[in-house]
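Q: Predict the assembly, please.
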Amino acid sequence: MDGTTPSIDFAAIGHQDSWQNISAFVNSIRNTGQGKLSCEKIKDIFGFISPKEIFRIKARSKTGTEINGVYIETFIDPDKLHSQFVRANINKVLAAASRAKRLGSKMVTLGGFTSIVLEGELESLSTRETKFTTGNTLTAAFIVKGIEKAAERLGISLHQSDILIIGATGDIGMACANYMKSRANKLLLCARNYQRLEKMAGQLVKEKIKIDFSVRLEDLLPQAKIIIAVASSMDIKLNHCNKNVLICDAGYPKNLENNIIYKKDVHLFHGGMGQVSGGYDFSPDYSRSIYHYEAPHLVHGCILEAMVLAFEKRFESFSSSKGNITTDKMEEIYRLSMKHGIGLAPLYNSKGLW
Amino acid sequence: MESVIIQSLKKGELTMEEFNVISDIFSQAITGELIGMSNFASLAETIDDPHEKMEAVEHANSERMHAEGFLAYARKKNLKINVNMNGEYWGNVRKQFLKYAHNRDFTACLIIQEVMLESFAISMYNDVGHALGGEAGDLFISIGNEEKEHLEHSSDLLCAELKKDPAAFESKFEEIHFNCMSILAEFSATTDLRGHCGVCNGDCMKGSLHHVGLDIVTLRGNAMAIYEEALDNIGISGEKSIIWMARLPA
Ligand SMILES: NC(=O)c1ccc[n+]([C@@H]2O[C@H](COP(=O)([O-])OP(=O)(O)OC[C@H]3O[C@@H](n4cnc5c(N)ncnc54)[C@H](OP(=O)(O)O)[C@@H]3O)[C@@H](O)[C@H]2O)c1
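A: Predicted assembly structure:
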């Protein structure tokens, strides 16, 4: 970095989960006379591109503070988000992390899948100048606050509801379970690994929390009044949901809506999202091709966590290793985000705003 | 362990398809090296400084030696070699180079020869070397390693150039990228976007690369990745390079 480069308060490392979005972005960059590239041609090259900064971000707090950020794309192939490509994906995330450091970023968040491939172990990435966070604490906070808001709107009482968490043993799943354990009637925990589920359930039983757990989603679905889906999986099928079930879909890739068998009386929203009331700008401004939300200035909780920490000048690894998100920390980062005018996103799903 | 191709080569047991595609690969490599040799020779003519002039001639000689190495192997194995420096792609790259050489634009020449062409050579020689294995593979890999040194050396020089006047340097690089990388992008697209290259003996070899365990998508992707890495090392920002890459023909 030379003396004329503005300092980078935060960097967001991310990935794409749909070829449709990638095509729209690539073709928006091409000159008008050049013609569009087919998705197949884009697929031929996308995964070979090395992680790099794509655009700068300027975000504004309601306190009047401005921060400078950068978005670094990992160029992880959306068709290769599975465990069989883990080595290649880890290399891409590590290359993106080095890039963020080289650019002089003070705070870096690993968005969505990029923190998952590192199994949430970010401690070793942080240096004196650059701190890394998964952003999962604010994401979890937005998920549970979203559930509270939606439940109130639908007249659903949390205390009387059994809440199913799909992906319960994950970083965000555990955080949601901890938050909800004193607020719900009962927790229903689902994940694929039985041992991890059993261990988590054992802990909650010791705390006298009412729970049920299973690796089979079908066993738990009939009881669930509220569902928090925080597993990164394409194979989750919600057969036989309860009538009037409330679902927060916060996992990626986003496809839960296509996998719900009984769509009638299902109230689904995309969770973990916040809204920046002070707004933000991209440079170059790719918002027309990359911004697909129905409301302005929506951002993923994980990116917002880095922004909030940057507004606060608290350059620290707020969420670093898996399983350490406490309810107090969720409340703390949520409070700080509200201070800067970053609130819960309006409730929406793929069909638009609720 | 020797690859199947090399064992077959030794025993004279290559299939016709394997023989043809290996012949075409060597033809492309030899033509490319001769283009490099001629480029440096042309560059030497434009340079006044005696040391730099000698360096350019030395570079030309090193490319000549690479061409000699490939030719010697091809002769030994009776490969069918076709050299054509005036074909659609190689000829146009050479024309681009000469345009800048005539203007005595040393930086532009370095960008074309040492960054663009060398990125492709380093990557493709490495991929071909690993696919062929044995003596042929070693030859490609060792020549590829020498080209790598050229790229690293020139990246340092270009990085220093960028620091002197970033805006002017980036705008010059951008012009050369679209003039020259577009040709290489068309050349390496899944189908030749401007017709036959004039080097392959029969039809375009891209459709036959699988006979030796290669495919054009991976060859092209890896080559573009090395080029991008070079842009990065020189100091071109990601915001710029992604636009440059997205605007290439494919
Ligand atoms: N909205 C946002 O801003 C935001 C931000 C960050 C992350 N996210 C998303 O949130 C999700 C969770 O992130 P995380 O960091 O908590 O991930 P994580 O720690 O890897 O946890 C994933 C959880 O899902 C479970 N799981 C995976 N596949 C499953 C399946 N087919 N059925 C049931 N359970 C399954 C895993 O357990 P088993 O392996 O035992 O099944 C684990 O409990 C991810 O999709 C991530 O992309 C969203």
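The pocket of NAP is lined by residues A 112-113, 115-116, 136, 139, 166-173, 190-193, 196, 230-233, 235-236, 250-252, 272-273, 300-302, 322 (CB under 6 Å). Residues 136-154 of chain A form the longest helix (19 residues).
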